[in-house]
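lol forgot to send this yesterday, sorry. struct tokens for the thing we talked abt
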């Protein structure tokens, strides 16, 4: 079995004159990221490896989350920065097979599109919610009956969890 956690970066700021790649988290994002990390850990989800976009906002999100998850190994993967779903899937398929649980920290719309593309099974209401939105700092957990990451394919996953920050704490909504 393969377990994939897709985590969208927390809410970011848009300072004038700052390139997109260098946009930091805003105050709400800095509050939400560690709370989401604690929730991921409380669900018993312990990734073996993280694939992280090189953007400042994804790196800050991961830094705030990873301690709660046992500080797993991570790799910066330029190919997932602002990538389409198919490109993120291509990066996932190259993950080492000894990593049974993988977390990807990235961006929309590609990350949300990928979650919908992969989650062919799971509670209908949860899949409908996933298809309607993938807000900042939300995460989806999708399980696959696959021997390798190369075997992960569209519609073959089962959506196990989809958690938005406001589901954890209504003060994080917005």
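and heres what i got for the seq, position by position
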């Amino acid at each position: 079995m393969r377990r994939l956690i897709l985590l969208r970066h927390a809410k970011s700021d848009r300072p004038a004159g700052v390139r997109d790649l260098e946009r930091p988290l805003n105050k709400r994002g800095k509050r939400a990221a560690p709370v989401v990390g604690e929730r991921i850990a409380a669900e018993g989800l312990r990734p073996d490896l993280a694939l992280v976009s090189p953007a400042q906002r994804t790196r800050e999100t991961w830094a705030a989350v990873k301690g709660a998850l046992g500080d797993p190994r991570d790799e910066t993967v330029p190919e997932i920065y602002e990538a389409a779903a198919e490109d993120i899937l291509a990066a996932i398929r190259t993950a080492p097979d000894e990593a049974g649980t993988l977390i990807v920290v990235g961006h929309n719309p590609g990350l949300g599109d990928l979650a919908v593309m992969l989650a062919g099974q799971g509670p209908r209401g949860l899949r409908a919610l996933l298809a309607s939105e993938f807000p900042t700092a939300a995460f989806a957990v999708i399980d696959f009956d696959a021997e390798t990451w190369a075997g992960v394919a569209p519609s073959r996953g089962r959506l196990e969890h989809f958690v938005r920050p406001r589901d954890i704490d209504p003060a994080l909504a917005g």
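The mean pLDDT is 96. anyway ping me if u want another try
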